Structure formats: structure tokens, C-alpha cells
Amino acid sequence: MKNLLKILFIFIISFCFNNKVFACDLFNISPGSEISKLENIVGEIDLDYDTYNKHDVFRFIASNDLYCPNSSLKRTSSSIFISNNRVTGIKIESYLKNKTYSRVKGNQVFTFINNNYGSIDTEVTEKDWTGVKKIISGNKIILYSKSEKKRGILESALITSEKYYEQTYDEEIIELNE
Questions:
Q1: In the chain, domain spans
Q2: Listed residue (112, 172, 109, 119) closest to 145, CA to CA
Q3: What tens digit of pLDDT does each residue of 53-75 get?
Q4: Considering only CA atoms, which of 77, 100, 97, 72 is closest in space to residue 153?
């Protein structure tokens, strides 16, 4: 009986702590991880560090439909930022056209962040809300934003850390997908 209770207790504890495991390995990459973790998911990334400055910031864009088909992020993309052979951050982006926004349930990035990283103030789900919210989840910083563009709504979340935040932007980011 004691063994059965131990097994049941372990099962319940592992189930409770397992709710932060993502349906996509891409989002299990922590800021500061070596680029090889990213390459295990998306394949080899052609990057010759000898021709660039070690402080340059590179961006690799990945389709979440392709690399994360079981996630709740449909028709979204992720920009993975790389600097000095390390993944410095991942930015999830969703663009909804205005007419689609009213018909299709929006806020999928908000829902993903809320379910996997931590709670964001629900005011961001209001139709006309735009702005930026910052949340802390362990050693990660998540900057959730929603902005109005000419023909739609851009919803995004940058997942990084305090140490690597400055390596998620640059005056001239070098695109790797070209």
C-alpha cells in the first residue's frame, strides 16, 4: 500500500510540474543556450563567425506551423536571435488583419505566454488595447506587446533574459534566412 501511495504521489507531482513543458522543442531553448540546440531542431544554420564581429546580432525566422505543429500558435512565426554562437532570445509574432481579428479569436500569443510562462494582465485581451507588458518567469524576461499596424494587429512576445536582452536587437540585424 505504501508503494502504491508513493507511486501515486510521484505521478501527481510530475504531472503538476510538467504543465510548463511545451508542445514544441523550440520554446524549450533557454536564452544563453548554444546554437547547436537550435540546430538540433531546425537543421544546420549557415553562419560563418569569421566574417562577422562577435557582437553582431543574427535573426533566424522559423515558421511555428512547421517547427511547432502541435502548439497553439497557428500561422505565427518565431524570430530566433543569435549572438556570439548563443541563442539570445526568441520572439513569437502573430499578425491578424483587422477584418480577420473580429472574426477569428485573436490573442493566441497572449494565451501561449499565459499558459506556459506566467500571467499577463487580462486588459491586453481588450480589442483596442495596445502597449507592452513585462513579466518575469524564473530567469526569463517576457515582453508581450500588441500594436496596431496599417492593416492589422501585430501581437508578439520576446522571450529572453536580463543578461541577453541587449543581444536581441541591433541597428542592423543580419538575416539568416535569405
A1: 23-175
A2: 109
A3: 878 899 999 999 999 888 889 88
A4: 97
Model pLDDT for residues 114-163, shown as the tens digit of each residue: 988 888 888 888 877 899 999 998 899 999 999 988 878 899 999 999 99
Grid coordinates belonging to 159: 522571450
Which cell goes with 73?
A: 500558435
Q: What angle do CA 159, 31, 158 make, to 5 degrees?
A: 15
Helices (H), 83-176: 98-103, 108-116
Backbone angles phi, psi at 66, to 5 degrees: -80, -50
User: For residue 153, what are the CA distances in angstroms to 127, 135, 147?
Assistant: 10, 21, 6
Q: Provide the grid cell at 177.
A: 534566412
pTM of the model: 0.81
